[in-house]
Amino acid sequence: MGSASDNGGDLPHDGGTPDGLPELPEEWGVIVIPDDLSELADEVRAVRAELRLLNREAGLLAKVRAVPVPLSDLARPASPN
Fold this sequence. Notes:
Elements: H1 41-66, H2 71-75
């Protein structure tokens, strides 16, 4: 087990990927982890809002799909009024 100072791993000093870990996808760009996590507060709020919206939409879709429609109603021709 490593000490707290080295986190137990062999990290490269050039900022590269630690031994044994895969590279991140290029489309992710440069990932910067801030020292003060409160700097991410705006992003956290945006992600939570997006997740709430997706959750709400999924709930509405589940309710719509939960209403059974008898097959006889689907096969019956519309009555002229």
